[in-house]
Specification:
- The protein is 35% helix and 17% strand.
- By secondary structure, the chain is an alpha/beta fold.
- It has a single domain, classed as Rossmann fold.
- A hairpin with a 2-residue loop joins strand 1 and strand 2.
- Helix 1 packs antiparallel against helix 2 and helix 2 crosses helix 3.
Length: 124
Amino acid sequence: MAEFTFAPLTPASFLDRSAAVFADRTAIVDGERTFTYREMSDRCRRLTGALATMGVGHGDRVAALCTNSHVMLELHHAVPLRGAAPLRSANAGGSASRPPRPSRRSPRGSSAWPARMARPAADR
């Protein structure tokens, strides 16, 4: 393979290329909601800005508690765009036989609240 044709496949590069090449094609179908690659890219960029406003920076870890939905997919792209590391269920809590590794860095939280679920008073 020629050197000039290689680019690492990262969530950011995938999102950029998909938004440029497949802008008006459907990227996400989540129940009744659909988003194009252009809309997905825009939503992820805005979420990256929201993470920055929350103080999430390079090297931070972001834990998300949400269903397998467009929200989780957007976080999958937005968190690395911010330079942070997403904690997913596979590595967020560890397995039952192995306790989670201690860390000096505390994760920053991001949560998605379904419309039918009331937010805790502290989040209002």
